[in-house]
Structures are given as C-alpha cells and as structure tokens.
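// run 5 | inverse folding | seed 20
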C-alpha cells in the first residue's frame, strides 16, 4: 500500500471529522479573508540595492526629502491658473489639507512663482503635499486628503504613488468581484456538460471556493508578518479557483470510474492513489514554478511567489483530504440529479474522434511536427519585437482619480521636469568651494552634452543665477548712486564756487577743477561706503567664475536669503551635491532609460564620485536587476521540474519533452501578450488603453505561473499513458489510450482554466488582464495543439525510448 492509497483510506475512514475540520476552517475564513486587502501594500519594486535605490536613501537621509508626496491637480474653467482668483481658490481648497498632522508642507505656484506648477494651457495647476511618514502610511491618508481638498470652484484630482496604490487596491477588489461573477457560473456550466450531473458538477466548485477562502484567510495572517503586494489578491484568487476546480475535476472523474468497479470504500482510496498522486505531483510542478519568483529581490515578485505557494498547498490539501472525505460521504449520490444518461467509463465522450486523431498523428509524426512548429512560430512572432517598461497609474482604468490626475500631468505639464534624473555627486570637500564648483560646472556640462538631456540644474547653475542677479543689483545700485552723487557734486561745486566769488569777487583760476575733484572724491567714498563692490570673479555684466560664485554665495546677505537657503538645502548636503538632468524623452520610455545609461558612462572630474537615480534610472535598474535574475529562476524551475518528472515517470525523455512543449505554449502566450497589450490589438474589446510596451514583470509572472499550471495536463495525460504502458500495452497503444481516456476531462479542465483566467482579462488593471489572458492562451494552446498533436507525434517518434531508462515496472514485466 503506497502513501496515497493510505491517505485515501484515512480520508474515507475519518470522513466526517475531516469535513468538520474543513467546515470550521471555512467559518473562520469568512471572518478574515474579506479583510486581506487591508493588509496588502503598494509598491514593492525596491530591495535590490541598486544605484537608484541608494540615491533615494541619500535624498531621504541627507537632503531631508519627504518619504511620500501626493500631488493634487487643480483644473479651472475661466481664470488662468496664475490669476489671483485661481490661486485663492486653490489655497482655500488646500487649507484643511495643511491641517493634517502628518503633512510636512504644501508647495504651490502662489508660493514659488515657478511656471513648472502651471499647465501649458494655463487652465490647470498642481500642489505638492509632502508627508513625514512612509508611502504605506500615506496611502491610508489619501482618502482624507481627497475629502478635505474638494472645491466648489475647481476640479481636483489626487494622484501620486500613494493615491495610485490605494486605487489599485480598490480596483483589485472590484476585479475579483467581477471575475467571480462570471467565472463561477461558467465553470459550473462546463462541469455540468462534462459530468451530466448537478452533484458531480457542484463538487469541484465547492472545492475551488473552499481553496480560495482558506488561502485568502491564511494570507491575511501571513501579510501581518510579511509585506505582501496588493496583486496577491487577484493572483491568489485566479490560481485558487483554477487549481481547486481543476484538481477536483480530475479526482471526481476518476472516482466515478472507480465506482463502477467496486464499493465506495475502495473507490475513494483508489481515486487518491491514482488521481491524487497526479494531483500531488502536478501541484509540486506548479509550486516549483511559483518558487521561481523567490529568486527576485523585490517584494512585489516574492510576495506573489509566497502567496502562490500557499494557494498550491491549500488546493492540493483540499484535493487530497476534503475532496476524498466529501466523495466518501456522497458515494453513489455523486451521480445524482443527472441531466443526461451517463456513458460507460470505457466509452468516453468523443472516444472515436480522439482515437482517430491520435492514429492520424502517429502515421505522420514528422509532418505534424513541422506543421505544429509553423503554427507555434506564428503565435510566437509578435514576441520578437517585445518592449518592456514599468507602468504606474497607467495600469488603472481611466475612471480612477489618480489615473486622471496622472494623465493630466503627462499631457499638460512639463512632465520630464517633474521627474528628472537625480545625480548625487560626492566631492572632495565643500561643494561651495571654487574648486568644487568648477568640478560641478564641468560635470554638469558633460551631462548636459549627453543626447536626450535638455538641461541640467545644479548648485552651480543656481549660483550662476544668484551671481548674475547679485551683479545686476549691485550694478544698478552703483549706477543709481553715481547718478545721485553726480547731482550732489554739481550742487556742491556750484555752492563752493558761489562762496569763492562772494568772498573774492571772482573765481580764482583752477579753483573750479580743484573743487570738483574734491567733491567727486568725497562722493566716490560715499558710494563705496553705501554700495558694495562686486566680489572677485564676478563681472558687472553678470558673468562669473567658480571663484566668483563661491564668493557671492559666501556673502551673508545672499546666503541668508530664503531663496538661496532653499536652494542650498535642495542641492547641497555635507560633501554631496545634486545635479538634476531633465530629459527630452518621457521619463517612462525606453529612450529615457537609454539616456540614463549614457549619463552613467560619463567620466566624472577627478575626485568626484557619483550615483544616478530618479524615475528613469529606477526603472532601468529595476528592469536590469529583474532580468539579471531570470536565468537563475529559469534554471531552477526547469531543472527541478525535470527532476520531479524524472522521479515520477522514471524516464529521461518524457520530462525533457514535457519541459520543451511547455516552453512552446509559454512563448505562444508571450506573443499574444505583445499582440494585445503592446501593439494595442483588441484594446477596445478588452477596454484598456495600449501601453506601447509590456509590463516588465508580466513575462516573468507568466513564466512562473503558466509553466506549472500548463504542466497539469501533461502530468495527467502522461500518467494515463504510463498506466497503460505498464499494463503491457505498446507505446503506440498506450498513447492512444491515454489520449482517449483523458481527452474529455482535460478538455473540460482546460475550458475551466480558460474561463477562470480569461474572466480576469476583462478586469480593470492592465497587469491582471495580461496575466489572465496569458494563462488562458497558454492553457488553450497546451490543451489543443500541444496535447492533440505535438505530444502524440513526439511520443510516436521516440517509441519505447520514451520510457528509458525505467521502462515498465518489474511487476508488469513478470506478468508479461
């Protein structure tokens, strides 16, 4: 008796206690599962220790940057955004926001007079609300900001990372409700068609629902101790429903067959011994795929891997304990409420079709391989021009407030200047010294000379403007003083000459020149006492050397001004200074990320070390680190999957073939993803705005989920083929029997997965759409082209080598 048979007997013997335990778990889950979304977090795209992450840490620690910023976009219909009326209405709307305890400060156009805060059409403006708490804590304050900032005079849109994360959480909950609304009825309909019995059809739905409920409740407690992404909610529901229903479908189908050959007490253990064994190893394959996500340092990816592992564990546990116990209680009532006359198990639905198709494939295996190869290449072809990127608010439907606000910022404002490249340079000493200002100037010039960089802002450019303004003030004051002094000199000369004439009756020769020279000397001394001279290195026309800028910034009256103090706190901290490069391309594009690469390749002046951060740099680092870990994850998934299948089937070639054909179905789903989400085909039907690229995380998520899920059908099919082979059938007959016996049930299982995952393709969040569609396409390809054509063809070509080196079990060899 093997372990699965023993588990089946245990589940049958203690069926009532097992049902009670699961019932209690479901009751408890009803209290915790609905609250999972409250514990999930946004973001999760940091943790690799990249340059961009280090820059962000420096900005927070040394430059006192705010941990989280919410952007409030204001839109009017009349007075321009720069008008007093607009700004007064804006300030009134922000008055209550300033009163939130966690708010550090609120920055607007009325305070800065920076044209950056005004849209190109001058009908919109925005305010930056800086918080002193983390992004996660700020996310919990977004609704309060939205409530307080509402205005009767202006339209308001609250956006920024915390607002986007909050809206994604809300959209995820809405997506699940919408998907479940369609997935459950359609899955039940497919099960009714497959089984012809309402009871048999209802059991997998119950198991799937129980798997999802217990999984989400478990994740509620996991999320209390381990950061979990909000995408966990949709991925867990999608996988839980699909796997839970699928596993139960295979087990119920086998149980109904076994009932015809023995009593319930034997049918349950035999079902667990056969279908249960396949479920266990299939679940292991799915688990291995999801564990590949643990190779990535990002919370977003790792949390989905962790959540997926719990999904698989609960789904398999339900299939191996709850389901056998339920089947033991139902017994022959599993066939109750039949809607059609049930066929004998030896004559499955469509037996002739599947048998004939297998026969045709095995007669022309090479031709089939070439034909299938051509079809798969056509499906793969769009993936050859795949571009990856990192969307943020664009993953949301356009009706969400944070998406609307973000779209306005991108469309109507200088968005590149809002999100510049941040370059933190460490200098050998005081950044305001003449030597280091010269280094900043030279470095900024090199950055500004890079293709794709429009302008560079630094302490040097600020110093240049300050020196120019100071020179203008001094020159203007000097000119005014000289004009006033000239008038006083003329008056003094006239007065003194009149006195001389009154005293002597005439003006002595040369006296006028002497009097004027003395008056001018005194006037010059007075001017020098009242108007400062320009510092060394600063010219009257406003141009200045690094030494001149350093001298200007050292002047107390300059350094103590609010504008210069703000600039110094923004650009200088200790021996570090920031340079901000504004890119010509949109910061979210591949072109902007290429600019980051060129900036990083610049040779800095001697003694200067620098790091490049900002939005574009962060995306570049994320994509680079993400795909840098892909080979390790792929090697793990492929290697361990091969090993598990080798141990399961005792064959060298069967696992290799299974891995290869799974990769083929995966590439087909990649092609569909590019065709739809990058190229924009079917965007109207699926109701989304094309991104022009593929979310960089989606191909990896799809690989780690699809590889295991699509392996299900391979495992179930090969298990039946091996079963026939070990009972003495030839390789060709075994393939035919395995295909015929599993055809109906695998088709139904695939249809259920397609319905469940396909339902998520019609949800709101683009990332969820992509994963749902990718899974549906991969399963469709796997259950049709791969299973019907490719598997029989390859197994026909390999013959008995399929089962090398294990061959048949010795027991069957002796019987033969």
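// decoded
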């Amino acid at each position: 008796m093997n372990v699965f048979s023993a588990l089946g007997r245990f589940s049958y013997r203690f069926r009532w206690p097992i049902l009670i335990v699961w019932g209690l778990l479901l009751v408890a889950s009803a209290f915790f599962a609905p609250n999972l979304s409250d514990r999930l977090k946004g973001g999760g795209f940091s943790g690799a220790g990249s340059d961009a992450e280090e820059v962000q840490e420096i900005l927070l620690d040394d430059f006192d940057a705010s941990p989280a910023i919410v952007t409030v976009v204001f839109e009017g219909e009349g007075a321009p955004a720069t008008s007093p009326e607009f700004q007064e209405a804006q300030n009134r709307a922000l008055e209550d926001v300033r009163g939130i305890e966690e708010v550090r400060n609120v920055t607007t156009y009325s305070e800065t007079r920076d044209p950056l805060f005004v849209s190109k059409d001058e009908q919109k403006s925005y305010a930056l609300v800086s918080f002193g708490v983390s992004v996660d804590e700020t996310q919990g304050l977004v609704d309060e900001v939205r409530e307080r900032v509402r205005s009767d005079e202006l339209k308001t849109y609250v956006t920024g990372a915390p607002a986007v994360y909050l809206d994604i959480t809300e959209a995820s909950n809405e997506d699940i409700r919408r998907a479940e609304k369609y997935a459950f009825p359609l899955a039940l309909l497919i099960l009714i068609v497959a089984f012809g019995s309402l009871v048999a059809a209802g059991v997998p739905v119950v198991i799937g629902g129980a798997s999802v409920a217990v999984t989400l409740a478990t994740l509620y407690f996991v999320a209390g101790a381990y950061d979990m992404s909000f995408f966990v909610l949709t991925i867990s529901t999608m996988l839980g429903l699909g796997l839970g229903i699928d596993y139960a479908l295979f087990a119920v189908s086998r149980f109904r067959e076994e009932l015809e050959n023995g009593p319930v007490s034997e049918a349950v253990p035999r079902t667990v011994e056969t279908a249960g064994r396949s479920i266990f190893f299939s679940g292991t394959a799915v688990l291995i795929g999801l564990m590949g996500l643990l190779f990535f340092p990002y919370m977003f990816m790792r949390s989905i891997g962790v959540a997926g592992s719990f999904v698989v564990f609960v789904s398999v546990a339900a299939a191996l304990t709850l389901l056998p116990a339920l089947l033991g209680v139902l017994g022959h009532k599993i066939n109750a409420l039949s809607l059609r006359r049930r066929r004998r198990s030896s004559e499955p639905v469509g037996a002739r079709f599947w048998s004939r198709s297998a026969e045709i494939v095995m007669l022309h295996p090479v031709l089939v391989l070439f034909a299938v190869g051509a079809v798969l290449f056509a499906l793969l072809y769009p993936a050859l021009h795949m571009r990856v990127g990192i969307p943020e608010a664009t993953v949301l439907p356009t009706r969400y407030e944070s998406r609307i606000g973000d779209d306005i910022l991108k469309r109507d404002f200088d968005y590149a200047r809002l999100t510049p490249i941040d370059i933190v340079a460490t200098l050998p000493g005081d950044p305001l010294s003449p030597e280091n200002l010269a280094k900043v100037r030279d470095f900024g010039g090199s950055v500004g000379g890079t293709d794709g960089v429009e302008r560079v802002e630094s302490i040097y450019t600020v110093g240049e403007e300050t020196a120019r303004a100071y020179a203008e003030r001094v020159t203007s004051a000097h000119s005014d003083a000289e004009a006033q002094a000239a008038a006083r000199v003329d008056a003094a000369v006239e007065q003194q000459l009149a006195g001389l004439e009154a005293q002597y009756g005439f003006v002595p020769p040369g006296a006028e020149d002497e009097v004027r020279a003395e008056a001018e000397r005194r006037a010059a001394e007075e001017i020098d006492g009242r108007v400062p001279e320009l510092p060394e290195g600063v010219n009257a026309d406003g141009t200045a050397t690094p030494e001149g800028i350093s001298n200007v910034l050292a002047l107390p009256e300059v350094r103590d001004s609010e504008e210069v103090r703000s600039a110094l706190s923004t650009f200088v901290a200790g021996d570090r200074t920031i340079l901000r490069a504004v890119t010509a391309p949109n910061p979210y594009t591949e072109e902007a990320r290429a600019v980051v690469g060129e900036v990083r390749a610049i040779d800095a002046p001697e003694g200067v070390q620098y790091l490049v951060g900002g939005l574009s740099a962060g995306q570049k680092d994320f994509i680079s680190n993400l795909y840098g870990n892909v080979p390790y994850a792929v090697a793990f998934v492929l290697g361990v999957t091969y090993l598990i299948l080798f141990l399961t089937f005792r064959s060298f070639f069967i696992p290799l073939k299974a891995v290869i054909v799974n990769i083929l179905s995966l590439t087909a789903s990649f092609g569909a993803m590019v065709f739809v989400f990058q190229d924009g085909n079917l965007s109207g039907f699926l109701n989304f705005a094309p991104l022009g690229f593929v979310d960089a995380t989606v191909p990896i998520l799809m690989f780690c989920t699809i590889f295991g899920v699509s392996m299900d059908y391979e495992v179930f099919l090969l298990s039946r083929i091996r079963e026939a082979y070990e009972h003495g059938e030839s390789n060709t007959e075994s393939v035919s029997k395995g295909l015929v016996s599993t055809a109906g049930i695998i088709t139904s299982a695939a249809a259920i997965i397609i319905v469940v995952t396909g339902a998520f393709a019609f949800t709101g969040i683009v990332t969820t759409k992509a994963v749902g569609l990718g899974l549906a396409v991969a399963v469709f390809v796997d259950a049709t082209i791969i299973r019907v054509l490719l598997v029989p063809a390859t197994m026909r070509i390999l013959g008995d080598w399929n089962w090398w080196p294990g061959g048949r079990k010795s027991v069957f060899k002796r019987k033969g």
